[in-house]
Give the backbone structure.
Amino acid sequence: MSKPKLIVISTGGTITMTSGQGSKGIAPTLTAADLLNAVPQIGQQADIEALTFSSMPGASLATSQIAELAHLIQQRFDGGIDGAIVIQGTDTIEETAFLLDMLVADRKPVIVTGAMRGAQAAGADGPANLLASVIVAGSPQAAGRGTLVVLNDEVHAAAFVKKGHTGLTSSFISPNAGRLGLVSEQRALFTSSSGMPRLALSRPGAWPDIAIVKACLGDDGRMLDALPGLGYAGVVVEAMGAGHVPQCWAPRLSGLAAKMPVVLAVRTPGGPVFTNTYGFPGSEIDLAGRGLIPAGLLDALKARLLLGALMGNNETVEAIRHQFMRFSNLQA
Ligand code: ASP
Protein backbone atom coordinates (compact mmCIF):
# COMPACT_ATOMS: atom_id res chain seq x y z
CA MET A 1 0.00 0.00 0.00
CA SER A 2 1.35 3.44 -0.86
CA LYS A 3 2.07 5.87 1.94
CA PRO A 4 -0.29 8.80 2.56
CA LYS A 5 0.84 12.23 1.41
CA LEU A 6 0.64 14.65 4.34
CA ILE A 7 1.54 18.27 4.94
CA VAL A 8 3.00 19.32 8.31
CA ILE A 9 2.54 23.03 8.94
CA SER A 10 4.22 24.69 11.90
CA THR A 11 2.95 27.92 13.46
CA GLY A 12 5.27 27.77 16.50
CA GLY A 13 4.56 26.93 20.14
CA THR A 14 6.53 25.15 22.86
CA ILE A 15 7.19 22.22 20.54
CA THR A 16 9.41 24.59 18.50
CA MET A 17 10.95 26.37 21.49
CA THR A 18 14.57 26.29 22.64
CA SER A 19 16.67 28.41 24.97
CA GLY A 20 19.80 30.39 24.34
CA GLN A 21 18.45 33.08 22.04
CA GLY A 22 19.38 35.88 24.43
CA SER A 23 16.02 35.87 26.19
CA LYS A 24 15.56 34.39 29.65
CA GLY A 25 13.23 31.50 28.88
CA ILE A 26 12.48 29.37 25.85
CA ALA A 27 11.17 30.88 22.60
CA PRO A 28 10.18 29.56 19.14
CA THR A 29 13.21 28.74 16.97
CA LEU A 30 12.63 25.40 15.20
CA THR A 31 11.06 25.03 11.76
CA ALA A 32 8.65 22.33 10.59
CA ALA A 33 11.59 20.62 8.84
CA ASP A 34 13.67 20.68 12.06
CA LEU A 35 10.83 18.99 13.95
CA LEU A 36 10.36 16.33 11.29
CA ASN A 37 14.09 15.61 11.04
CA ALA A 38 14.10 14.79 14.76
CA VAL A 39 11.64 11.90 14.23
CA PRO A 40 13.00 9.58 11.52
CA GLN A 41 10.16 7.05 12.10
CA ILE A 42 7.75 9.49 10.46
CA GLY A 43 9.25 8.66 7.05
CA GLN A 44 7.99 5.07 7.40
CA GLN A 45 4.43 6.31 7.94
CA ALA A 46 3.94 8.96 5.27
CA ASP A 47 5.42 11.17 2.57
CA ILE A 48 5.60 14.59 4.14
CA GLU A 49 5.74 18.15 2.91
CA ALA A 50 7.03 20.52 5.62
CA LEU A 51 5.88 24.13 5.79
CA THR A 52 6.76 26.76 8.38
CA PHE A 53 3.76 29.09 8.42
CA SER A 54 4.85 31.21 11.39
CA SER A 55 7.00 31.04 14.48
CA MET A 56 4.83 32.34 17.29
CA PRO A 57 3.51 31.39 20.69
CA GLY A 58 -0.09 30.22 20.62
CA ALA A 59 -1.27 33.31 22.50
CA SER A 60 -0.25 35.62 19.65
CA LEU A 61 -2.01 33.84 16.80
CA ALA A 62 -4.94 35.73 15.27
CA THR A 63 -8.26 34.44 13.94
CA SER A 64 -7.40 35.89 10.51
CA GLN A 65 -4.19 33.81 10.42
CA ILE A 66 -6.10 30.64 11.24
CA ALA A 67 -8.63 31.48 8.51
CA GLU A 68 -5.70 31.88 6.10
CA LEU A 69 -4.31 28.55 7.30
CA ALA A 70 -7.69 26.88 6.69
CA HIS A 71 -7.67 28.23 3.14
CA LEU A 72 -4.12 26.94 2.57
CA ILE A 73 -5.04 23.48 3.88
CA GLN A 74 -8.11 23.31 1.62
CA GLN A 75 -5.94 24.28 -1.37
CA ARG A 76 -3.48 21.48 -0.54
CA PHE A 77 -6.35 19.00 -0.16
CA ASP A 78 -7.68 20.05 -3.57
CA GLY A 79 -4.16 19.51 -4.91
CA GLY A 80 -4.06 15.89 -3.74
CA ILE A 81 -2.65 15.98 -0.18
CA ASP A 82 -4.32 13.30 1.98
CA GLY A 83 -4.14 14.96 5.39
CA ALA A 84 -2.76 17.98 7.24
CA ILE A 85 -1.01 18.36 10.59
CA VAL A 86 -0.85 21.76 12.22
CA ILE A 87 1.80 22.26 14.89
CA GLN A 88 1.17 25.05 17.34
CA GLY A 89 1.26 26.43 20.85
CA THR A 90 -0.95 24.47 23.18
CA ASP A 91 -2.32 27.64 24.85
CA THR A 92 -4.83 28.20 22.05
CA ILE A 93 -5.23 24.76 20.46
CA GLU A 94 -8.78 24.47 21.82
CA GLU A 95 -9.68 27.60 19.83
CA THR A 96 -7.65 27.18 16.64
CA ALA A 97 -8.71 23.55 16.19
CA PHE A 98 -12.39 24.52 16.42
CA LEU A 99 -11.86 27.35 13.95
CA LEU A 100 -10.16 24.98 11.49
CA ASP A 101 -13.01 22.53 12.03
CA MET A 102 -15.51 25.21 11.02
CA LEU A 103 -13.58 26.47 8.02
CA VAL A 104 -12.15 23.34 6.35
CA ALA A 105 -15.07 21.56 4.71
CA ASP A 106 -13.41 18.32 3.70
CA ARG A 107 -13.46 14.70 4.80
CA LYS A 108 -9.67 14.59 4.79
CA PRO A 109 -8.21 14.79 8.31
CA VAL A 110 -6.78 17.92 9.88
CA ILE A 111 -4.81 17.19 13.06
CA VAL A 112 -3.61 19.85 15.49
CA THR A 113 -0.76 19.05 17.84
CA GLY A 114 1.92 20.67 19.97
CA ALA A 115 3.90 19.89 23.08
CA MET A 116 3.80 20.68 26.77
CA ARG A 117 7.59 20.48 27.12
CA GLY A 118 10.17 22.44 25.14
CA ALA A 119 12.26 20.74 22.49
CA GLN A 120 15.35 20.52 24.74
CA ALA A 121 13.52 19.37 27.88
CA ALA A 122 14.14 15.92 29.37
CA GLY A 123 11.23 13.81 28.18
CA ALA A 124 10.19 16.31 25.51
CA ASP A 125 6.78 15.20 24.24
CA GLY A 126 6.90 16.98 20.88
CA PRO A 127 8.45 14.12 18.86
CA ALA A 128 5.94 11.54 20.14
CA ASN A 129 3.03 13.93 19.56
CA LEU A 130 4.18 14.60 16.02
CA LEU A 131 4.55 10.89 15.23
CA ALA A 132 1.13 10.11 16.75
CA SER A 133 -0.42 12.92 14.69
CA VAL A 134 1.08 11.55 11.48
CA ILE A 135 -0.30 8.11 12.35
CA VAL A 136 -3.80 9.52 12.97
CA ALA A 137 -3.69 11.67 9.83
CA GLY A 138 -2.78 8.59 7.80
CA SER A 139 -5.56 6.48 9.26
CA PRO A 140 -8.60 5.87 7.00
CA GLN A 141 -10.79 6.01 10.14
CA ALA A 142 -9.86 9.66 10.74
CA ALA A 143 -11.67 10.74 7.57
CA GLY A 144 -14.92 12.65 8.05
CA ARG A 145 -14.38 13.32 11.77
CA GLY A 146 -13.44 16.96 11.34
CA THR A 147 -10.40 18.52 12.94
CA LEU A 148 -8.82 16.37 15.63
CA VAL A 149 -6.39 17.25 18.40
CA VAL A 150 -3.69 14.67 19.12
CA LEU A 151 -1.38 14.87 22.15
CA ASN A 152 -0.23 12.29 24.69
CA ASP A 153 -1.37 9.50 22.31
CA GLU A 154 -4.99 10.65 22.76
CA VAL A 155 -7.35 11.87 20.05
CA HIS A 156 -9.91 14.61 20.82
CA ALA A 157 -12.68 16.29 18.83
CA ALA A 158 -12.08 19.98 18.12
CA ALA A 159 -15.51 21.02 19.41
CA PHE A 160 -14.90 19.65 22.89
CA VAL A 161 -11.19 19.60 23.62
CA LYS A 162 -9.78 21.86 26.34
CA LYS A 163 -6.36 22.53 27.80
CA GLY A 164 -6.90 21.18 31.30
CA HIS A 165 -3.51 21.66 32.97
CA THR A 166 -0.68 24.18 32.69
CA GLY A 167 2.15 21.66 32.67
CA LEU A 168 1.26 17.98 32.43
CA THR A 169 1.74 16.12 29.17
CA SER A 170 -1.77 14.74 29.80
CA SER A 171 -3.13 18.30 29.77
CA PHE A 172 -5.75 17.86 27.05
CA ILE A 173 -9.22 16.71 28.05
CA SER A 174 -12.72 16.63 26.59
CA PRO A 175 -15.05 16.92 29.60
CA ASN A 176 -18.22 16.90 27.51
CA ALA A 177 -17.37 14.03 25.20
CA GLY A 178 -14.36 12.03 26.35
CA ARG A 179 -11.55 11.26 23.97
CA LEU A 180 -12.37 9.90 20.53
CA GLY A 181 -9.52 7.45 20.41
CA LEU A 182 -5.93 6.52 21.10
CA VAL A 183 -2.70 5.85 19.32
CA SER A 184 -1.33 2.44 20.24
CA GLU A 185 1.42 0.33 18.65
CA GLN A 186 1.69 2.77 15.74
CA ARG A 187 -2.05 2.57 14.98
CA ALA A 188 -4.95 4.92 15.49
CA LEU A 189 -7.72 3.25 17.49
CA PHE A 190 -10.99 5.15 17.49
CA THR A 191 -13.02 4.16 20.53
CA SER A 192 -15.93 6.50 19.87
CA SER A 193 -18.06 6.59 16.77
CA SER A 194 -19.87 9.78 17.70
CA GLY A 195 -19.82 12.44 15.04
CA MET A 196 -19.74 16.15 15.75
CA PRO A 197 -21.80 18.63 13.75
CA ARG A 198 -19.79 19.77 10.71
CA LEU A 199 -20.39 23.45 10.16
CA ALA A 200 -18.56 24.00 6.85
CA LEU A 201 -18.72 27.78 7.08
CA SER A 202 -17.36 30.15 4.46
CA ARG A 203 -14.29 32.11 5.37
CA PRO A 204 -15.66 35.36 6.85
CA GLY A 205 -14.68 38.55 5.06
CA ALA A 206 -14.13 40.24 8.42
CA TRP A 207 -13.99 39.10 12.04
CA PRO A 208 -16.35 41.04 14.25
CA ASP A 209 -15.14 41.61 17.79
CA ILE A 210 -16.93 39.34 20.25
CA ALA A 211 -16.45 39.80 23.99
CA ILE A 212 -16.55 37.10 26.66
CA VAL A 213 -17.88 38.29 30.02
CA LYS A 214 -17.58 35.95 32.97
CA ALA A 215 -20.17 36.09 35.73
CA CYS A 216 -18.63 36.26 39.21
CA LEU A 217 -19.93 36.43 42.76
CA GLY A 218 -21.07 39.93 43.68
CA ASP A 219 -20.26 41.53 40.30
CA ASP A 220 -22.96 43.99 39.19
CA GLY A 221 -22.36 43.45 35.47
CA ARG A 222 -21.64 47.09 34.64
CA MET A 223 -19.10 45.93 32.06
CA LEU A 224 -22.01 44.68 29.93
CA ASP A 225 -23.33 48.23 29.42
CA ALA A 226 -19.95 49.41 28.12
CA LEU A 227 -19.59 46.77 25.39
CA PRO A 228 -21.52 48.44 22.53
CA GLY A 229 -19.53 51.66 23.04
CA LEU A 230 -16.29 49.69 22.90
CA GLY A 231 -17.10 48.41 19.43
CA TYR A 232 -18.09 44.85 20.26
CA ALA A 233 -20.55 43.30 17.84
CA GLY A 234 -21.57 40.33 19.96
CA VAL A 235 -21.12 38.89 23.44
CA VAL A 236 -20.74 35.50 25.06
CA VAL A 237 -21.74 35.42 28.71
CA GLU A 238 -19.86 32.78 30.69
CA ALA A 239 -22.51 32.13 33.29
CA MET A 240 -22.44 30.29 36.61
CA GLY A 241 -23.64 26.74 37.13
CA ALA A 242 -26.04 25.60 34.42
CA GLY A 243 -26.43 29.12 32.94
CA HIS A 244 -27.11 31.62 35.73
CA VAL A 245 -26.09 35.21 36.40
CA PRO A 246 -26.70 37.60 39.32
CA GLN A 247 -30.25 38.93 39.01
CA CYS A 248 -29.03 42.50 38.52
CA TRP A 249 -27.44 41.33 35.24
CA ALA A 250 -30.83 40.33 33.78
CA PRO A 251 -32.12 43.79 32.74
CA ARG A 252 -28.65 44.72 31.48
CA LEU A 253 -28.64 41.57 29.32
CA SER A 254 -32.12 42.36 27.96
CA GLY A 255 -30.79 45.73 26.81
CA LEU A 256 -27.68 44.18 25.28
CA ALA A 257 -29.61 41.41 23.48
CA ALA A 258 -31.80 44.08 21.86
CA LYS A 259 -28.63 45.53 20.29
CA MET A 260 -26.51 42.48 19.40
CA PRO A 261 -26.44 38.67 19.61
CA VAL A 262 -25.73 37.49 23.15
CA VAL A 263 -24.81 33.83 23.65
CA LEU A 264 -25.17 32.06 27.00
CA ALA A 265 -22.35 29.62 27.84
CA VAL A 266 -21.27 28.28 31.24
CA ARG A 267 -18.09 28.72 33.26
CA THR A 268 -18.61 25.22 34.72
CA PRO A 269 -15.98 22.96 33.08
CA GLY A 270 -18.46 20.28 31.96
CA GLY A 271 -22.11 19.97 30.97
CA PRO A 272 -24.49 21.77 28.63
CA VAL A 273 -26.24 25.08 29.31
CA PHE A 274 -29.63 24.21 30.75
CA THR A 275 -32.71 25.48 28.97
CA ASN A 276 -35.68 24.30 30.99
CA THR A 277 -35.07 23.89 34.73
CA TYR A 278 -34.58 27.11 36.72
CA GLY A 279 -37.05 29.98 36.62
CA PHE A 280 -35.59 32.71 38.91
CA PRO A 281 -34.46 36.11 37.58
CA GLY A 282 -31.05 35.57 35.97
CA SER A 283 -31.74 31.84 35.38
CA GLU A 284 -31.40 30.09 32.03
CA ILE A 285 -35.18 30.24 31.39
CA ASP A 286 -35.30 33.93 32.28
CA LEU A 287 -32.28 34.71 30.08
CA ALA A 288 -33.67 32.75 27.11
CA GLY A 289 -36.84 34.86 27.43
CA ARG A 290 -34.63 37.96 27.23
CA GLY A 291 -33.24 36.79 23.88
CA LEU A 292 -29.99 35.07 24.87
CA ILE A 293 -28.90 32.16 22.68
CA PRO A 294 -27.86 28.99 24.56
CA ALA A 295 -24.42 27.66 23.55
CA GLY A 296 -25.38 24.01 24.17
CA LEU A 297 -22.25 21.99 24.89
CA LEU A 298 -19.86 24.60 23.52
CA ASP A 299 -17.77 26.46 26.05
CA ALA A 300 -17.39 30.23 25.93
CA LEU A 301 -14.13 30.20 23.95
CA LYS A 302 -15.61 28.05 21.20
CA ALA A 303 -18.97 29.86 21.30
CA ARG A 304 -17.12 33.15 20.74
CA LEU A 305 -15.45 31.76 17.61
CA LEU A 306 -18.68 30.31 16.23
CA LEU A 307 -20.57 33.56 16.84
CA GLY A 308 -17.76 35.56 15.21
CA ALA A 309 -17.62 33.31 12.15
CA LEU A 310 -21.41 33.39 11.71
CA MET A 311 -21.63 37.15 12.16
CA GLY A 312 -18.67 37.57 9.80
CA ASN A 313 -20.76 35.68 7.24
CA ASN A 314 -23.69 38.08 7.90
CA GLU A 315 -25.96 35.33 9.23
CA THR A 316 -29.26 36.34 10.82
CA VAL A 317 -29.91 35.90 14.53
CA GLU A 318 -32.26 33.00 13.70
CA ALA A 319 -29.55 31.26 11.65
CA ILE A 320 -27.08 31.84 14.49
CA ARG A 321 -29.55 30.33 16.96
CA HIS A 322 -30.01 27.33 14.68
CA GLN A 323 -26.25 26.66 14.44
CA PHE A 324 -25.88 26.82 18.23
CA MET A 325 -28.83 24.44 18.65
CA ARG A 326 -26.83 21.82 16.76
CA PHE A 327 -24.54 21.72 19.81
CA SER A 328 -27.49 21.06 22.10
CA ASN A 329 -28.73 18.16 20.06
CA LEU A 330 -25.77 16.37 18.53
CA GLN A 331 -28.04 14.31 16.29
CA ALA A 332 -29.35 17.45 14.53
N1 ASP B 1 2.96 29.05 25.71
C1 ASP B 1 3.05 27.99 24.76
C2 ASP B 1 2.31 28.36 23.50
O1 ASP B 1 1.09 28.25 23.45
C3 ASP B 1 2.54 26.75 25.34
C4 ASP B 1 2.70 25.55 24.49
O2 ASP B 1 2.93 25.56 23.31
O3 ASP B 1 2.58 24.47 25.08
O4 ASP B 1 2.95 28.78 22.56
Observations:
- The first helix runs from residue 32 to 37.
- The pocket of aspartic acid is lined by residues 13-14, 57-59, 89-91, 114, 116 (CB under 6 Å).
